[in-house]
Amino acid sequence: MLSNNADFTKMKTIAFATSNDHKMEELRHILPQYKILGLKDLGIQEEIHETGSTLEENALIKAEFLFNKTGQSSFSEDTGLEVDALNGAPGVHTARYAGVSRNPEANMDLLIDNLKENSDRSAQFRTVIAYKSANEVRIFEGIVRGQIAKTKSGQGGFGYDPVFIPDGYNNTFAELDQTIKNQISHRAKAVKYLLEYLILRSD
Ligand code: IMP
Q1: What confidence score (pLDDT) does residue 10 get?
Q2: Among 92, 160, 178, which is best to mutate for testing ligand 1, by the most ligand atoms less than 8 A from CB?
Q3: From 7, 21, 41, 78, the catalytic residue
Q4: Alpha-carbon Rg of the chain, whole angstroms?
Q5: Which residue's C-alpha comes closest to atom 11 of ligand 1?
Q6: For the segment 139-172, what is each residue's pLDDT rounded down to a tens digit?
Q7: Rounded to the nearest 5°, which phi and psi values hold at 72?
């Protein structure tokens, strides 16, 4: 017996332009009403070149790539960590902050080094979702504000989670229960707006 009212035989399918297993897992928790197919599920191995100069441009590049490949309503997301004292850096360069290897440990070490003892440690994660269907292109944004910790703590989550303490909490995203992260995160907020839009359109 199903534990909720979801009718899985009627679940709608949506394609998500990511090969990041952490993002897939988060999205499946946040958006249980949809069958979400990632790049791996769709057998797409090509690298999508994120050549845009903003999160919005990169999200659009990925959603349009996937829509053109599959013909299926598609969405993508691009996330940046924007640190106030660094004038919004790393921003669109978040993934490659410490170099092309996209190493999360090196990225966080560089961020901690660049902030040094700066007393202003305020920052935000900003997620931009681009949605592309046969008829429309839409952009949604989700932001969570917080503080950059002076050291890394916690094992959960991914990326910069060990150095980001969301406002209203005393622990990093990597220390918090992932259910909490999935309720308050930048990604959760952006997906909520996407979902509201999909419900309105009954897509
Ligand atoms: P992208 O959106 O996959 O290009 O990710 C950009 C960068 O932000 C990568 O370094 C990710 O690890 C990091 N990132 C994206 N989402 C999160 C998150 O929820 N927590 C921590 N880091 C994240």
Answers
A1: 66
A2: 160
A3: 78
A4: 17
A5: 159
A6: 999 999 999 999 999 999 999 999 999 999 999 9
A7: -100, 145
